[in-house]
Design brief:
Helix 1 packs antiparallel against helix 2. By secondary structure, the protein is mostly helical. It is built from four helices and no strands. The protein is elongated, with a radius of gyration of 20 Å. It has a domain of about 80 residues: Helix Hairpins (Orthogonal Bundle), CATH 1.10.287.
């Protein structure tokens, strides 16, 4: 049998390793807790990117379900209960709102030496300064 090898270097769902097609060989390791937590974060980003590129409702639902599964695993790995997470979600919605208004901020002007200016200056890739 002539096999070609491709790097995956990512988390797979538990049952998927055993469900690969005949003639396919998946090589894997078990991660320690610290590396697992790191890989869960990377997988969440991957699923967010895949959701961004979903081209139909079914595809989007598949990616969102995967993201929820990753979030569940992250909660379990960090000792966060579903009740704790939902309580914080509710609190943040009460204090900051949700996304119902579809508000998209294009730019913000901050006073010099303000907290907002400091945050933007500390994160120039996320908040590039617009110079007139």
């Amino acid at each position: 049998m002539n096999l070609r090898t491709f790097k995956h270097h990512k988390l797979w769902r538990d049952k998927m390793v055993n469900l690969v097609k005949a003639g396919t060989k998946a090589h894997w390791i078990s991660l320690n807790d610290l590396e697992f937590k790191k890989q869960l974060k990377l997988t969440l980003i991957e699923k967010a990117h895949e959701a961004q590129h979903a081209d139909c409702k079914q595809s989007l639902m598949e990616e969102l379900v995967d993201a929820l599964e990753v979030i569940d695993a992250m909660c379990q790995a960090h000792g966060i209960s579903a009740q704790e997470l939902m309580a914080l979600k509710k609190k943040k919605r009460e204090t900051s709102g949700g996304f119902d208004g579809k508000t998209f901020v294009t730019f913000v002007e901050y006073q010099k030496d303000s907290v907002g200016e400091k945050i933007c200056l500390e994160n120039p890739d996320k908040y590039p300064e617009i110079k007139n």
